[in-house]
Description:
Distance between the termini of chain A: 12 Å
CATH class of chain B: Alpha Beta
Shape of chain A: globular
CATH class of chain A: Mainly Alpha
CATH topology of chain B: Rossmann fold
Shape of chain B: globular
Oligomer: heterodimer
Mean pLDDT of chain A: 88
Low-confidence stretches of chain B: none
Distance between the termini of chain B: 40 Å
Radius of gyration of chain A: 20 Å
Amino acid sequence: xxxxxxxxxxIEMPQGKLIALxxxxxxxxxxxxxxxxxxxIPVLKAISDSLQNNQSVIAIILTEVRLPRALIAxxxxxxxxxxxxxxxxxxRNPLASPGLVGSSSGAALGAVFVLYFGFSSLFWPAxxxxxxxxxxxxxxxxxxxxxxxxxxxxxxxxxxxxxxLALAMISLLLNLAPSPYAVREIVLWxxxxxxxxxxxxxxxxxxxxLLGWLLVLGSTRSLDALTLGEETAYSMGINVERLRxxxxxxxxxxxxxxxxxxxxxxxxxxxxxxxxRPLVGYMPGRLISVSAxxxxxxxxxxxxxxxxxxxxxxxxxxxxxxxxGAPFFLYLILKTRxxxx
Amino acid sequence: MSLLQxxxxxxxxxxxxxxxxxxxxxxxxxxxxxxxxxxxxxxTLLKILIGLLSASAGEVRLDNQPLNxxxxxxxxxxIAYLAQEAAAHWPIQVERLVQLGRTPHLSSWQxxxxxxxxxxxxAMINTDVNSLRDRVFTTLSGGERMRVLLARALxxxxxxLLADEPVAALDPAHQLEVMALFANHCQAGGSTIVVxxxxxLAAHFCDRLILLNKGQKVADDTPEAVLSEENLRxxxxxxxxxxxxxxSPLHLPWIxxxx
Lengths: 341, 259
């Protein structure tokens, strides 16, 4: 164990290099993603068409279908990765993530509620607002249930409880839904996907996401200080209580608006910070920007993968991330259990 | 004028008095030991002195100003706190952990300056952890960890160090080493309050001792006066042996006495 941890720190990379590398990868993936779709189109021609304001079919496919899809995947992935890193740093717990602490399912409940009552057609910000509110409520409930210095087990249990509650309420809404089409639509949305969205969806998602990101700025040093525990961080002048509320709000805003568009996409927020943590020398502050980039890279990769998958119906990207993420989660639990013994 | 003082500090939780009208003062350059049985309220008093807990009655003053009127950053630069069983939650590098001590001196956006790094280097040299700088904190032994955490506290460059049972988990050699570091801090003009269970160490290193029992201050005087036979029998239910060794008595708890 000793040996392993000592070597783990040696795979660290300089922060600038890591960010440059991930940004390069992300740009490459966004470009690649423009080339992949159900119908092959001459992408370069489409780009030149849309730049010349020529409303050809291929230009429309590019700007109305593929570009929003790539950007929404990048934005949602970045939010999930970043919020995973924030929750893990704040709770000092490698298993915390937006999915686990109820933030995602709370957001899903809020969004389903808005969709169910048709508020979103009356007032477009209702959808992200519902997501944010649901996300914040679920987060607070888990936090209150688990308590401040929650052990990993307590946190998981509190998360499970709130997640089941949110899912039960979603089921209730589905159960009461008047039309089977509405049910089908909501269920498909809940599987989690970045496909079939227009640029309008991107604009709906953007304000909350950016606001959430802004709130995170400047908290890296405080998160680093929290490595030494809340009391020591306090003794070094950190207002721990204020930091906690600020970051909870940030996660709720960002995850709430992302999930209200894409549906709950699981495990990105858990897996990404975990994989990148050794590369930043386990410093929780540095992990945030890196995880945002990593989350975008991961979700884009997954979304490209589902498009390449030879199946009659396209698999939803949320299904793929859960299929890959759930075994990873089990592996993490086993690993934590081993180190605790 | 004293540097740090608590006047009439009381704290009651669920109707039970944890601390009852405790007065405490700390002078510049002084090393003050806080002793007393388990549950006497030593850790609680320390937490109140730094503002981690608020007293239900009484007032804490730092530099003759009410503690809660001082901005957190400024308080953080003046008082460093070594929590009981302090730990790191992530396996980070020793040097980075010590650098965290500069937190109260830096704004959210500032990077560590050359001066900051020099202070960090000095703290690591003083605590003899320079050779551990590239190691991962969680892989260190108990004694090494304590020294690293102390280096972190010294990197704050505080006037006041508050340490809650810093030597409880250490072997005798490391106990002496850590206590000597506190003594150095005081000789250099700083002040220290240290919670201790080892009476010999308390007598050896501290300028003054405060003995707490069941939330009340029993004695506040020089080590010889505080560690009197009567005080110890009354508070700890123990009798000591105090063999003389080159002038200073050793305080060895020897038998339990029931009252």
